[in-house]
Amino acid sequence: MDAEHLPDSILIVDFGSQVTQLIARRVREAGVYSEIAPFSLAEEAFARLRPKGIILSGSPAGVPEEGSPRAPEVLFEAGLPILGICYGQQVMSHQLGGKVEAGTDGEWDGEFGRAYLTVTKDCTLFDGLWQVGERHQVWMSHGDKVTRFAPGFEIVATSDGAPFAVIADEERKFYGTQFHPEVVHTPDGGKLIANFVHHVCGLAGDWTMAAYRETKVREIREQVGTGRVICGLSGGVDSSVAAILIHEAIGEQLTCVFVDHGLLRLNEREQVETMFRDHYNIPLVVVDAEERFMAGLAGETDPEKKRKFIGKTFIDVFEEEANKIGGADFLAQGTLYPDVIESVSFTGGPSVTIKSHHNVGGLPERMNMKLVEPLRELFKDEVRALGRELGLPEIFVGRHPFPGPGLAIRIPGEVTKDRCDILRKADAIYLDEIRKAGLYDAIWQAFAVLLPVKTVGVMGDYRTYDSVCGLRAVTSTDGMTADVYPFPAEFLTQCATRIVNEVKGINRVVYDYTSKPPGTIEWE
Ligand code: XMP
């Protein structure tokens, strides 16, 4: 980005904490643009972004451990305000001449979870928020602690486990908190971070989604130049927002491909076609690949084999279509921040595969394409805000997530077109009832499942022998953990009655009461 267009920003240096993304969120909620850079690339990001303040994140590592990460020295020499959080406080103390000791020494074995601190001195971070002598709830998660702070600092708040709960060097505008202000369990945390960006860094807080849109459009133009971009649409909000943003930046250089694998929800394909062709006039290739997918799924009942087949076939179809239009230089994806965080994890070894998630990974190397991922810094609700900014209809913007393998993983056992049709109808009735009850936006994801189980029923004077339909609805913030949505009994009764009466092939409805963990959101 050229210098005159640089927004006022905060650089967040990531040492691999699980919650670094939340710092970015809090800064943006305060109306200030921020970017996260892994500590190893922080110097480069600092030079490029020219931030007005720096935040150092937490980390699974410990400062006393050999080889643990450090912040680039230039950050301390830049004359800019710095806020160090947890490990960030410790690494700053260490690098500026203080001392950090490991948690395993002596009696001390760390401070985890809810804690209370006492404010001992006024500090700009506490402006309009905390007074001397008050006690406040914060969230701690640390084994090591600072035992001697660096020259220039003083203690402004203490807790039982961390005498240096907050330290400050008002002259240099360096601050350190042993607790995590970015998590919701520190009730005033968002305001503390807002004080840092507004009062300490002096930023106005006038950054908006409209500004983000402008910035990204400019960046996409710079990255793509005159190249061609291809984007796989899933019908979900992420890929739709990415495509519309990219189209705004480069127009006809973008082609979107939508693979209809026959595993979509009711009317999904028509909705995507209408929106892209009629509403936005974006070139769209729709591939009808239902038969190919159904043929490959015939006889297959193993969940992983179903997933692998769908993932692979999706890539094959996508590649064939890309070749038909003469290939592309870039592949656009709607990757979000939570998808990225795992890949920058500081310790991050391979984790156990619970399910093979379907994506278009593998394609860029195979087809020699570079990636365009304009949503990499955003969270789901921010993508929705950007979607609204771009004029996407509400029905699209607020959509529940839908997995790439679609209905195939909601039909345990063999997937056939008939069973997909039955499930589509039941699912549409369930969602219709949810919308009518005004509950759609309170739920992270709701869907019907068609079980490979037949039960006996009675309708009128007749015996029925048909399939069981499961209903699922969960609340979640990121899909990683989930709670069951507690519908009133009458609501579920109404859904069951309608589904059994209106969908031929289903004669019994059950509700899934399993949280994640131990369940997963999808059934396969
Ligand atoms: P699970 O079932 O693992 O799902 O608890 C967590 C979230 O991920 C979605 N999901 C997928 N999304 N491709 C996707 O794009 C997939 O293969 C896939 N599998 C699950 C799921 O719908 C939920 O939101």
Would you write up a description of this structure?
Mean pLDDT is 91; it is low at 342-351. This protein has 524 residues and is α/β, with parallel strands linked by helices. It folds into 3 domains: 3-200, 3-Layer(aba) Sandwich (Rossmann fold), CATH 3.40.50; 209-397, HUPs (Rossmann fold); 416-511, GMP Synthetase, Chain A, domain 3. Helix 1 packs across helix 5 (189-200), helix 6 (209-224) crosses helix 7 (237-250) and helix 15 (417-436) packs antiparallel against helix 16. It is built from 16 helices and 20 strands. Helices cover 33% and strands 23% of the residues. The protein has helices spanning 20-29, 42-49, 73-77, 87-95, 189-200, 209-224, 237-250, 268-279, 290-297, 303-324, 337-341, 363-366, 380-389, 394-397, 417-436, 489-502; strands spanning 9-14, 33-38, 53-56, 82-85, 99-101, 111-119, 135-142, 145-148, 154-159, 166-169, 174-177, 229-233, 254-260, 284-288, 330-332, 370-372, 445-459, 462-475, 483-484, 506-511. A 9-stranded mixed beta sheet has the order 2-1-3-4-11-10-9-6-7, with helices on both faces. The protein has a 5-stranded parallel beta sheet with strand order 14-13-12-15-16, with helices on both faces. Strands 17, 18, 19 and 20 form a 4-stranded mixed beta sheet that branches. Xanthosine-5'-monophosphate binds at residues 355, 357-358, 401, 403-405, 445, 479, 516, 520-522. The active site is at residues 86, 180, 182. Its EC number is 6.3.5.2. One of its GO terms (molecular function) is GMP synthase activity.
